[in-house]
Amino acid sequence: MMDIGRRKRLWTVAWLLTGLCSAGVCGCGSDELGGKMDGSHEGSGRLDAEIQPDNLEDSNGDQDAQIAAMPDSATNPMRDAGGGSVDPPNEERDGGSGGGDPVMRTLKVNPNIIRRDGQGAQNWGDGVTLAAFDLRGGAARVSYDDEFKDKGFGVAGARWKQIDYYERERGGPASETIVIDFGDSVTDVTLMVGMLGFNEGGRGFHETGRWTALDASGATVATGLIGPELSTLGPNNKVSGSYGMYPIDITTRRQFRSLRVQATGFGHGDGSPHDRNYGENNSDFNIVEVRYTRNP
Questions:
Q1: Among 98, 110, 163, 262, which is 20 to 30 Å from 37 by CA?
Q2: Residue 81 confidence (pLDDT) above 90
Q3: Cα 162–164–166 angle (5° rounding)?
Q4: How far apart are CA 193 and CA 225, in angstroms?
Q5: What is residue 24's predicted lDDT score, i.e. its pLDDT?
Q6: Do the Cβ atoms of 140 and 171 come closer than 8 Å?
């Protein structure tokens, strides 16, 4: 089936041709204008059938309520050069029309997906699973972090229900880990993290983390950093109204299967932990959303 975007473009072309014929530019004569869109031109019968707006179908079908598919244009939001916070772009749905086109999808945090008290792989939807690991790399429980403003997925077991990093306590330096397994190869991934504190480490040091993209065999495809300065909304621009929600591009040169997410020391390790009445304060954040493209 022809995708919706192509049909709309064909309809626009047909509309322009009608205007040219009316002006006599196309050479067919104004007396033929009445037949232009009803099959009198070669191939125009098929074109007419394909481009009529009434024939534009919604090809999304019934999808999991957690999944929002959208066109590539939604992945490049306008940047706010003024700094601070910006509103995320509205997401449009694009089911891909069933013609083998890549489809971009978005999975958002949802506490209802957690089963077995978060133990083992948790089905996020669309064949994507979440798994948690403690500071020593052992199996842990996926948690729904609702303690603070930005709600997201994290790891149960340490002080917070986020992805915690410790430099001195609990056998550190070490981080808890969330692994997102997409079930198949993906590209164009954007990870939205929450509760990522700006200048929380003081002296300009933010809460930070790192990501590792892995292929189906577990080999590393690429690695990168997580921090406010890397926001796709512009350096240090967070989602409007959030404490610290930042979309981070996962840039790789080839497709990958899973994404490992960990915290680091303040300022990518350049800052120092703080001592609070509850103990060490260092980077911790959660996962709010992931956006990715499946290539059939």
A1: 98
A2: no
A3: 165
A4: 12
A5: 47
A6: no
Range of the domain at 45: 4-55
Count: domains in the chain? 2
Stated as kind and residue range, the H or E segment containing 46 is: helix 44-51
Q: How large is the greatest C-alpha to C-alpha distance in the chain, in angstroms?
A: 87
Compute the distance between CA of residue 165 and CA of residue 279 in angstroms, rounded to an integer.
Answer: 13
One-letter amino acid of 158: A
C-alpha to C-alpha distance for 201 and 208, rounded to whole angstroms: 10
Same domain? 16 vs 86: no
β pairing state of 152-156 and 279-281: unpaired
Q: Establish if 206 belongs to a structural domain.
A: yes
Is there a single domain that holds both residue 32 and residue 79? Answer: no
- Please, are residues 113 and 129 in contact by the beta-carbon 8 Å criterion? no
Domain presence at residue 62: no
How far apart CA 172 and CA 135 sit, in angstroms, is 8
Section 58-68 average pLDDT: 36
Quick one: DSSP state of residue 77?
A: P
Using only C-alpha atoms, the chain has a radius of gyration, in whole angstroms, of 24
